[in-house]
Amino acid sequence: MKNKQEIGLQVKINNKIYPLTLSLLLFSACSTKNIKKETKEHNKTINYTHLGIDVSNSTKKEITQAPKQVIYDGLKGDFQGNYELMDFIDMMVNTHNFDRKELNRIFSQAQDYNYIPMTRTDCTSTIIHRPLGTWDRYKSCFIYDRNIQRGVEFWNKYSDILERAEEKYGVPARYIVGIIGIETAYGVNFGKHRVIDVLTTRAMLGERRSAFYTDELEDFLLISRDIGLDPTETMGSTSGALGYGQFMPSSYIRFGVDFNHDGVVDLWNAEDAIGSIANYFAKNGWNPSIQEVAVRAKYKGNRFKKLKTGYKTKYSQYKLKRKHKIKSRSKLNYRGPVSLVKLGRATYDELWFGTHNFRVITTYNHSALYGMAVYQLAQEVSKRISGS
Question: Average pLDDT of 120-132?
């Protein structure tokens, strides 16, 4: 047993330890509270670089209030708070020296394209691709009397420019005219959708091809600045295509040429558009030595199901003739492999041979129907020009 002296000493030690322990615990609690408070304040300053704020000299009150104020004064509208777009704006400012306030103005007016009411037309893909008569419906969208006459008027107005493009690039004028007629009806319809809405929506809302459309948006803003367009007013296609030839912005930059030599590549200018379309075909493999683009073929029966068809197909003319009894209806000087193109009519299928240059046309739009529409519109306009 402990004597009284030992017990008194233990009590004295405990009395000293307890206050010390309590003090340490209180200090720890205060420190933890301060850390949490500092962390909370720190989190309020994250991502300020998106907003262009220098917080180094700001008071604590200014820092905590800044995000709400700057978002309101900067990026507004459907894309307010979209960090993908904030990063994109940072890139455009730092890489291309764009003005941040101007970009905020532009993107504050951009609308989510998914919520803009669409006007349905008779030439939507769902109507065109019904089982029978596909070609009849597709053709009626582009090859009709008024559009053919517009083509004649366009050719007459720009005959010198078309001749110069044909001479320089080796692409016949009629196919340049055909492209412009299919794409914009010779400038009647440059598109019914704001390009800024289409490209921003497709780029910034996580669509499958968002990376592609982000690049297109970047190119679109560069083009707009270079030629003095207001991006919020520019109209284009449902994909964001531009001008007489409906070039995507990347194709605009890659293939566009200043054909009127005014120092600006402007594809809403017919002369620049003519030269640019010819340049596109030349760079995609147009062969001036091949005269034919497409020739009607004949086969036994009314519906063709024997072989695979489409612009990607390539068949030996010799084998088609000997093995499958398929041959051209008129003389074909072209000796290379042909594509088999089937055009579904209401009561039968038309079959065509497409040459190398037909396949070049389909690089513009990956569709055999598109390639054939360009070809046939070109022929119809050319016939009226020549009076035949």
Answer: 61
Containing H/E element for 48? none
CA dist 182 and 254 (Å) reads 21
CA distance 373 to 178: 8
pLDDT band at 25 (very low <50, low <70, confident <90, very high): very low
What whole-number distance in Å separates Cα of residue 92 and Cα of residue 214?
11
Does residue 311 have a pLDDT over 60? Answer: yes
Residue 183 annotated among the catalytic residues of the structure: yes
Indicate whether 47 pLDDT > 50: no
Q: Please, what are the domains in the chain?
A: 66-113 (1.10.8.350), 124-171+287-388 (1.10.530.10)
- Write the DSSP string, 289-342: T---SEEEEE-SSSS--SS--STT--B-HHHHHHHH--EESS-----S-BEEEE
| Among 166, 183, 216, 380, the one annotated catalytic | 183
